[in-house]
Amino acid sequence: MATDEGVVLETRGLTKHYGGVEALTGADFTIRRGEHVAIVGDNGAGKSTFVRNITGVERPTSGSILFEGQDVQFRAPIDSRNHGIETVYQNLALADHLDVPSNIFLGREAYYFRLGPLSWLNKRKMRREAERVLERTGIKIPDLTQPLMSMSGGQRQCVAISRAAGWGAKLIIMDEPTAALGIQETTRVETIIKGLKEQGIPVILISHNLRQVFKLVDRIVVFRRGRIVGSLDAKTTDGNAVVSLITGIDQGVHADASYI
Ligand SMILES: Nc1ncnc2c1ncn2[C@@H]1O[C@H](COP(=O)(O)OP(=O)(O)OP(=O)(O)O)[C@@H](O)[C@H]1O
Ligand SMILES: [Mg+2]
User: Fold this and answer.
1) Ligand whose nearest atom lies closest to the CA of 175
2) What is the reported pTM?
3) Is 188 left (phi over 0), alpha (psi -120 to 50) or beta?
């Protein structure tokens, strides 16, 4: 259950150092039920590091993560998935040699029975479910039986997004989901994100595309050099205020920036 204030995920002082590199320092971040939050910042600002550390790809150097009010320590991505956090990673975590249904089911395969090497995958069920998941997201893949490696970058990205959006997640994190997509696929993904908003599913969207960010989210959190330097209401702020925070250089008027 979420806490009284509806906080789904909270990080306190989340910090990640790679040797001498301070990729993420003291991140205090909160996302509430139904809220869509963008994370923006220049290349190397620590956005993907933040994602990897809240989803269990990496272990933070220090700090804590609370999911639905509970202290959590995810040891692997499957731990966060089991809690209902679905993630589309910047460098796609898909299995190239497998087909679409297998990728959608990756880590939660359907079995007829499961007994070590004698396990028997229920391929038909996975295929049917995969079709249902793709239909819900409106994404068209010509041939589901083709391995992922024969697909375009855009199609692969669509499979990853369907996988994240199709499981009734409690929180969806997307790290630059449209960076490699064409106009049509980008529109499709933006429609999926709007659909998630209507369903009340909270989303953390990492994007360099401020136009997209203003169109889709309620709040914009800015990272600079591994630190959160601002949290702005998307309705009352403007591009200049966001760019000022991203670069650390004043662009002029600061609108209603509320700084952390
Ligand atoms: N595995 C790693 N080992 C060492 N340094 C790393 C590692 N991963 C990231 N870094 C460093 O941490 C910093 C933050 O990187 P990160 O990938 O989080 O940036 P980002 O905000 O996602 O950037 P982009 O917009 O380019 O994706 C960078 O200085 C990067 O070089
Ligand atoms: Mg990144």
Assistant:
1) 2
2) 0.85
3) alpha
Task: Give a yes or no: residue 44 inside a domain.
Answer: yes
Classify residue 252: in a domain, yes or no.
no
Q: Pocket of ligand 1, candidates 22, 48, 225, 247: which has the most ligand atoms within 8 Å of its Cβ, to mutate?
A: 48
Q: Ligand 1, atom 10: nearest CA belongs to which residue? A: 23
What is the residue with the minimal CA distance to atom 7 of ligand 1?
A: 18
CATH code of the domain in which 100 resides: 3.40.50.300
Which pairing describes strands 62-67 and 111-113: parallel, antiparallel, or unpaired?
A: unpaired
The atom of ligand 1 lying closest to the CA of 19 is 4
Q: Is 175 in the pocket of ligand 1 (CB under 6 A)?
A: no
Residue 258 in any domain: the answer is: no
Residue 253, domain member (yes or no): no
What gap in Å lies between CA 120 and CA 182, rounded to an integer? 38
- How many CA atoms lie within 13 Å of 228's alpha carbon, on the beta-carbon side? 22
Q: What residues make up the domain containing 225? A: 7-247
Query: Any idea how long the chain is?
Result: 260
Tens-digit pLDDT profile for residues 19-77: 999 999 999 999 999 999 999 999 999 999 999 999 999 999 999 999 999 999 999 98
Domain count, the chain: 1
Cα dihedral 87→90→151→138 (10° resolution): 40
